TrEMBL record:
Record-annotated membrane-spanning stretches: 37-58, 107-127, 139-159, 219-239, 245-262, 292-309
Entry keyword set: Membrane, Transmembrane, Transmembrane helix
Name under which the protein is recorded: DoxX family protein
Amino acid sequence: MLSNISLDLAFQKNHSYFMEVTQDISEKTTWSITTKITFRFFFVYMFLNIFPFPLYYIGSIIGEDDLFSFYSDWFEQLSIWIGKNILSIKYEMPTGPNGSGDTTTDYVFQFVITVVALVATVMWSILDRKRQSYDKIFLYLRTFVRYYLAFTMFSYGFYKVIPLQFSELSNFDLIKTVGNQSPMGLMWNFMEFSDTYTRFSGFVEVIAGIFLLYRRTVVLGTILTVAVMFNIFMMNMSYDIPVKLYSGLLTIMGIFLLIPDLKRILDFFILNKVVNSKTILPYTDKEKTKKAIIGLKIITVLFLFYYNINDAIEGEEKWGKKAKKPALYGIYEVESFVKNGDIMPPLTTDTIRWKRLIVGKRSLGIQTMDEKIKYFNEETDTIVKTLQITNRKDSTDIQRFIYKFKDSLYTFESIYKSDTLKIEAKKKEREEFLLINRGFHWINEFPFNR
């Protein structure tokens, strides 16, 4: 039996089954016309989407975050002009960061760079029609794309390892009914509930980013990246989260990196065939240049970890779980509402009587009996016991309360627009909510699905 195996291995070796392959796009020295045209398009398209990476990190280092904003600003204005004058978009196209990556401007931007990439591909194909291949440029482009993906995976990953992207369920989330949540809000609350799952997903992204940094592990890193980003893309599509364009683009970038290894992956995972080893060709034959590249890589990796971890820690202290909470932080169930000496009954149709006072980290909300919530900015003085609230939509609309606490009741008194108000409320602790106090159980004799 062993001799048969030895003969079989010898036969395979003699017939070059163990021949090494390189990182070229193929083993041929000449690319087909289709391959060359496809490469030219993706080169321009990827570059336009990724640039000015990594130059904008220079701005962050020297404290000038807008150092390279001219590029995105120029394309933004070009997209708006094309949207208005060529695509005949009549409504206002929002600009600037607003939390959405799926604005009309973003879609027009993708249209613009696709057209630019197509035009550039045609011109490039005419001017450079005699070139046989782009092996070296392709290697550099893959390096550019995988480092961009690695930076991105670190950025998102560390914001989950240190729970910041999904911080914690707010006081407003706890009182909101499931039916009144947006699809995005439902998904966000799902992630915010569990730090364990959030950190797990973050570690997967960070590990994928680490593997992307090294050519020996780039296939594994890319497979992880595509799996993670496609899952995020499907979540964005399923829960109406406005990062559909970007997550889709990152998925495409991952697939682009996998293209040279698709056949090897298929042979190994699906067809149960022998997969040859791959030779990692150096970027240069000069020893000094090699050492310089290694040094630059070490500095880059250290910077990546420091930048993202430090940024996440600072963010956690500014607006995450460690951010300072207002003195009256909590949910207050109104038990008595007196206006001008008259007790107002808790009618569910009342648009004036308070049902709850919700004090969150960054805003205060007054929920009336009809379940509507009005949002305010708050300032609390714990020395003189005053609460001042300012309408977010009208900065001149200011109301000042004097509050006190006695016998488990909070009393808020104010004179507002000639009306005298006296409100008594009982604070409901977060731990009173089933979602918070249920906890984790290794053993469940019966499902606890409420």
